[in-house]
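Hi, here's the filled form for the chain we discussed.

Project: internal
Contact: R.S.
Residues: 138
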Amino acid sequence: MGEQLLKDDFIQHILAETAKAKQELDQWLRAPGVTEVGCIDKLTRKGHKNPPGSAIFLYNERNLLPFYEARRGLSGVFYVHLRCGYMFSVMNLHSVADHQRVVDEFMEAIVGLNASFAASFQVVVEQQGSAAPYMRPR
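And the returned structure, exactly as it came back:
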């Protein structure tokens, strides 16, 4: 019972932070000075903006076109991670394999967007995220 309460509290925390990030998104989405996107997770690297799920949040909530349109010809970094609270709580993905699949899809999208917008954003994938205690092995 206690473990389930911790998991439920974790999910509620991520959902609340996601709602907050959605409200703030339009303020920085088209701001070309934001070239590094990290995550709110205390276990992962930080960027100029740090929504839950990092750039996976952008990828899932919106498409990345507005981000790239404002950053044509620029470079930057997306810090994404596995065992992600956002992917676990919002996207309902409970295995590392599912998280890896989304990260792989994201990375493929970045290759195409970089080419289309003469940009050079890189993706740094970190392994540890705050959802690790709640995840299934496969």
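Let me know if anything looks off before we file it.
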